[in-house]
Amino acid sequence: MRVAVIENMRNTGLGALAAALDEAGAEIEWFRVWQDGILPLDISGHDALVVLGGEQSALDDETHSYLPELVRLTRRFGDAGKAVLGICLGSQILARAYGADNLLGTACEFGWHGIGVTGEGRADPLLSALGGEFTIFEWHADTFSLPEGAVRLASSAVAENQAFRIGRAVYGTQFHFEANSAVVEQWKAEFPDTIARIAPGWLENHAELAARHAVAADAAGLAIARAWVSLIDRQEAETLSQASA
């Protein structure tokens, strides 16, 4: 199982997703576009694509010149029937790839929050194990409209489109399900000034908030990660890729 991971920002971390990919024996190839802008040459070398978060917006083409090609790449993976996962910024890039609107600065969320699962989400492989609501970590200011043909899987009062699916295994999650306790601790250590600005008091209250929410969020995140990894279907992806060639 070969998985390409696009890192849009230094030291983003895979957290729960790393654990699920390791359990599946996946081979991960990192593309650190924040450093060199290099993306996979085509879709044939990988069975799945993961696009992680970052501080830029999905429309920052002038300052992040690789973005238009990344948008096209996500669409090519999806159209070939391969599993695609966009997390936070990655979900916004995925929405752009499928013709939706990016809405900048309209949906600010930080920290552990409750997410509601839609009826479609309760029946979907990604979220079906989580019931009607779960707690997960958020860090975003932007959001997006639902792409045409996409199924809304989860929602919140701040961001209506918290998770969606296109086709068999193309998923976007606005929330950071990969951000388990270890990742949150890393972010807390690396970005204290940013966190203090966007979420006053969170750093001081972190221990209490983590004690209240982290265990449930970690369990939900790992369940989501395992569910997506189980949808990486090498044979189906290869068949659909050949048919579309």
From TrEMBL:
CDD domains assigned: GATase1_1
UniProt keywords, alphabetically: Glutamine amidotransferase, Transferase
SUPFAM superfamilies, sorted: Class I glutamine amidotransferase-like
InterPro entries linked to this entry: ChyE-like, Class_I_gatase-like, GATASE
Single Gene Ontology MF annotation: transferase activity
GO cellular component labels: cytosol
Domain Glutamine amidotransferase, chain residue ranges per copy: 17-181
Domain of life of the native organism: Bacteria
Keyword Protein biosynthesis belongs to the record: no
Protein name in UniProt: Type 1 glutamine amidotransferase
Organism: Rhizobium sophorae
